[in-house]
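Researcher: I'd like a structural prediction for the single chain below. Treat it as a standalone chain; there are no partners to consider.
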Amino acid sequence: MIAAAKHKASRGSQHFRAKATNRVDDLQGMVSELQQARRQNRLKDVALLEEQMHQMLREWKAELREASPASSLLVMSFF
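Model: Treating it as a single chain, here is the predicted structure.
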């Protein structure tokens, strides 16, 4: 039972890392676009990209606050 919970937690951890890596890549791309828009003085694009970045960060923060099934399994395995 504990081994199965650890295996599921490991898969969850791998999924979390892959998702985090993709998000970091997305954010880096947006930062590059934002820098380019600032250099080219494209103020509308700057405002749009900043808002998109803030929205993305708010969504990630909300997801991190949610309890994940993997973390729930780990808590249950200790009881």
